[in-house]
Amino acid sequence: MTEIVSVVLAFWFGEPDSPDYGQSKKFWFESTPVLDQQVRDQFESVYQKAIRGELDTLRQAPEGSLALVLILDQFPRNMYRATPKAFASDPKALEVAEHALEKDFDKKLLPVQRTFLYLPFEHSENLEDQEKSVALFQALGDSKALQYAIDHRDTVLQFGRFPHRNVILGRQSTPKETKFLKESNHAGSGQKSCKQAL
Predict the structure, then answer these.
(1) Are the CB atoms for 135 and 146 separated by under 8 Å?
(2) Closest C-alpha to 157, from 128, 191, 196
(3) Tens of pLDDT, residues 132-181
């Protein structure tokens, strides 16, 4: 189990002894077929274990919780981009994140790592989770991350869901949602970045 945690965290954040450790990575914001395939090749089997509950013991430690959230929340957005499976494990990722906060695990992580632990709240279509997301990012003190959280919250507040997911999930968009999608130029894109992933 600890090997899985080490591999996942090293892939996403780099090695702890690397000079840029703890800093933002360019690939977090990319959506390239090469990156998607790399994540799929390296971590799809790990993801399958996670959704079957075989990695649930990782929740017992801060780093394990973070790794599990990455596996359940970030990796599917690469591996299954623009398909319903991209969001299928969001509820389980949120459950892990909630447990981590109950244990104050986030306080033992680097600020950039805490960002990813909080993202399941930002990815939820539940307004209460969105309000929690805004509060978490406000406390984190990252103005850019906070603005993304506010934008996500406001979208759910306005529509009760993310219209950007409608095409992917086979949902009918309302006229207001269609107008919103045209204006934001995201309709059916299924794009993914670490803070913008819908």
Answers:
(1) no
(2) 128
(3) 999 999 999 999 999 999 999 999 999 999 999 999 999 999 999 999 99
Contact status, residue 78 vs residue 35, Cβ threshold 8 Å: yes
Look up residue 61 and give its DSSP letter.
S
Which of 15 and 130 is assigned the larger pLDDT?
130
- Residue with structure tokens 């394990």? 64
- Distance of alpha carbon 99 from alpha carbon 95, whole angstroms: 6
Q: How far apart are CA 98 and CA 69, in angstroms?
A: 10
What is the DSSP secondary structure assignment for residue 124, as one 8-state letter?
-
The answer to whether residues 106 and 118 touch, using CB atoms and an 8 Å cutoff, is yes
pLDDT on residue 198: 63
Which residue has 């919250």 as its token pair? 153
Say how many C-beta atoms besides its own lie within 10 A of residue 30's C-beta: 15
Q: How far is CA 89 from CA 52, 63, 75, 76, 191, in A?
A: 10, 19, 10, 8, 17
SS3 26: helix
- pTM for the whole structure: 0.91
CATH topology of domain 2-15+25-184: 1.25.40
Residue range 79-108: mean pLDDT, rounded: 97
Q: What is the dihedral of CA 190, 192, 195, 198, to 10 degrees?
A: 20
Mean pLDDT of the chain: 91
